[in-house]
Write a structure and sequence with these properties.
about 90 residues; alpha+beta; two-stranded antiparallel sheet; globular; binds FE2/S2 (inorganic) cluster; iron-sulfur
Length: about 90
Amino acid sequence: MSHKVTLLSNDLEFEVPTGQTILEAALNNNISFPHRCQVGACAMCMCRKVEGEVSYHLDPVLTDREIQRGWIFPCQAYAETNLKLTFEE
Ligand code: FES
């Protein structure tokens, strides 16, 4: 099973298979998704979820306000539904 991710700011789509993080799936699809540490520490990969749900094995450090505004850590996040993401604030 997989979910579709639409990157609104880049007008790109890719599939995230169950068990892969959003970042892993993007890199497997040769999408140049910003990243560095891949462990939820550098915040390079952060983007905003406009639509859909994600889950984490370990909750990342985000304030309530950031969560409310949709910020996620794609290197740690698994897609629970189809997603629409943007790099724009
Ligand atoms: S790649 Fe560093 S926080 Fe996601």
